[in-house]
Amino acid sequence: RQWWELPRGKHNLWPAEMEQEEERWIESEHATCDKADHNESSLATAMGDLFADPDPRDIFQFTFHQSTNNNNNNNNSETTGEKNDLTSSSIHVKLSGYKMENGQILRSTGLTLWTASPRLCEYLVTTTTNNNQQHHQATTPIEFIRNRRVLELGAGLGLCGIVAHKLGAKQVVLTDGDTDTLKEMKQNVEANCRSAISASGGIVAETITCHQLRWGHRLDEFRERHGTFDTILAADVVYLEEMLHPLFDTVVKLLDRDRGRFLLSYTRRNVNIDLVLNSARERNFVWMHPEGIEDVYIMQNKTAMI
Hints:
Elements: H1 27-30, H2 35-50, E1 57-65, H3 77-80, E2 90-98, H4 116-124, E3 130-132, E4 137-139, E5 149-153, H5 159-166, E6 171-176, H6 179-192, E7 208-212, H7 219-226, E8 231-235, H8 244-254, E9 261-265, H9 273-282, E10 285-288, E11 296-301
Parallel strand pairs: 5-6, 5-8, 6-7, 8-9
Antiparallel strand pairs: 1-2, 3-4, 9-11, 10-11
């Protein structure tokens, strides 16, 4: 097996009034496709509107069972505000979104729940040890989260970021480029992380927040506002080859160079994993694939191993 990291920046957040305003951006309107694909998508959307489901909404409920090992369940309630999750055996998350077969998903894929997100969450709550024989390190998945600054890319409905918050992350920043998806995400964060909401309606110490981020777009501004991150999560985000360069541009810019890890939960759609790993290699990443965990890759910048 191999192990592997990226830049440490400012960790103080800019004042809320200086936060960059969201700009309306809908995924399908900017996706690269040929004319035939565009016509097919437009036709599918039109047919979806014609035969619209009278009840297009859906509820996604998850229970993730944690280890009862005392070494892996130190209470971090002072940081996260979540007083029960780390001492109980389960994490419960309830998300609101759209049915996968609904036509709205053709416009904004983040409005539903895809398979790689629960898979990544299952990995995060396991007690599986990742052994790094070359550097004599052993880590459990929760070590990538607890007391760490965590960024989720393409967060969609917010499942992985919410679970990271409940696992004791120091700070979680959930992002998506699509403005319709961001609206759903914010509602899900508020519904699932109530103990992090102050009486005035704000987030306590900004332990979990949602922001717009388009990969490869205005990254210096985002880094100035939010700093770099110890852990970056991404699940089911690669389904067009042209996404790879902006994705890894974003990871390189925002992941801490000295200790950062990029956890990618992959599902093959239109992009072979070899293309993904080649893009990672071009950006000086090395990776490991934890045993017994389907299609989860843990990446680190190679220079941090020197």
